[in-house]
Design a protein that fits this description.
390 residues; 20 strands; 9 helices; 5-stranded antiparallel sheet; alpha+beta; 28% helix
């Protein structure tokens, strides 16, 4: 049975950032004389799920409630991420973003959003229709909120840098390692995992602390300890899954846009809408749309007989702010799945970043419902987890 100080379950961008943070010092907990850290993931390499299937945007932190963890961690994480990318030569660009209104009612929302940003100290600017038309001739906007601190990043390069850091810190990464059971015994955690090693298909891990950064599978991990919990984890941490499809722009060069373009989001901020994304290579793509699904591993994008109607619907949404788009300009790209704590139609639910001593599990940190802006927030989440455990 292996023994470590810190066990991180999940090697998406958040798990990698947490592993890097926990392995960066020499803290002592539960009598451990060294800060050994192990990051595990059930997949064959890091970042294969939500972390590699998103918009690759560094968010400004403009949407969410003022006192929410999402807002706090996004704003802090944005600054940390720009600095980290600069220091580690991770490709990124502060490209800026518009949220565009198409009528007076949506413009009123943008005015409220601008005041919200002012209250938070986030720089934004409101521009009218004529100025928007001059700056982005292909974009239709009755009014636009400009977010100059929004950017884009090569997510894969960012994760590779985090992975390199944690290994340089002396931490270990074990892919193809899936958690089967966890129990809390004698002030430590005993974790049974399966591996890809035919000689040792199962092994045990003793850990002084555990961080549940399992993303789409975070509630499966909490389920393993739920019978011992003093709280109702079965309902408190139940996840719901929203699949989003991304479409590549494959038309000719008649569409030229210089920045990210977002529609006004729905009232519960369940989705930020099907937006226009520009990647580090200058290519345009659109997404995600949203479909509530039961499975957390359904990455299908082909709608079969419904494929063309799906593209037609997406094109119609995009045309609200990009009138020259045509359905034939779009081709299916990829899908991502967001782990949501809020079910369809429900009100906003915040990130869960919680050390669970109150539930009877000292040294166990749950990271549940970490969806957008989880990428932007990753370094700030890691810093908070490090503070909670040391």
């Amino acid at each position: 049975m292996a023994s470590v100080d810190h066990l991180v379950i999940g090697a998406g961008v958040v798990g990698l950032a947490v592993g890097r943070a926990l392995s960066s010092g020499s803290g002592i907990r539960n009598g451990a004389s060294a800060r050994s850290t192990l990051v595990i993931d059930k997949n064959k390499q890091f970042g294969m799920e939500t972390s590699s299937r998103n918009s690759e945007v560094i968010h400004g932190g403009i949407y969410y409630p003022k006192d929410s963890l999402r807002t706090r961690l996004c704003i802090e994480g944005k600054h940390l991420m720009y600095e980290y990318c600069k220091q580690n030569d991770v490709p990124h660009r502060r490209i800026g973003k518009w949220v565009v209104a198409q009528d007076d009612k949506q413009a009123e929302y943008l005015s409220r959003l601008a005041q919200h940003c002012t209250d938070l100290g986030i720089p934004t600017e409101m521009i009218g229709e004529s100025q928007a038309q001059q700056m982005e001739p292909n974009v239709r906007a009755h009014m636009a909120l400009v977010s100059p601190t929004t950017g884009i990043v090569d997510t894969h390069a960012f994760m590779a840098a985090l992975h390199r850091d944690l290994l340089d810190n002396g931490a270990d990464f074990a892919p193809n390692t899936e958690v089967l059971a966890i129990e809390h015994v004698d002030n430590e955690y005993r974790v049974l995992v399966s591996t890809s090693d035919t000689d040792t298909p199962y092994m045990g891990i003793r850990a002084a602390t555990v961080v549940n950064a399992a993303g789409l599978w975070a509630d499966r991990i909490t389920d393993m300890l739920a019978p011992q919990s003093k709280h109702d984890w079965d309902t408190q941490y139940r996840l719901h899954f929203a699949k989003g499809r991304y479409y590549m722009y494959t038309g000719d060069a008649h569409i030229r846009v210089q920045r990210l373009i977002y529609p006004v989001p729905d009232r519960h901020i369940t989705s930020l809408g099907t937006h226009l994304i520009i990647d580090m290579g200058g290519a345009i793509r659109f997404g995600p749309d949203i479909e509530w699904i039961k499975s957390n591993d359904d990455y299908s994008i082909d709608g079969g007989d419904q494929n063309q109607p799906l593209i037609n619907d997406v094109a119609a949404e995009i045309a609200k702010y990009l009138p020259s788009i045509r359905a034939e300009d779009l081709s299916p790209g990829y899908t991502g799945i967001r782990p949501k704590l809020q079910p369809p139609g429900a009100a906003f639910r915040d990130f869960v970043v919680r050390e669970e001593s109150d539930a009877g599990f000292p040294g166990f940190v749950n990271l549940v419902g970490i969806e957008s802006p989880g990428l932007t927030s990753s370094l700030a989440i890691a810093r908070l987890v490090d503070q909670l455990l040391n």
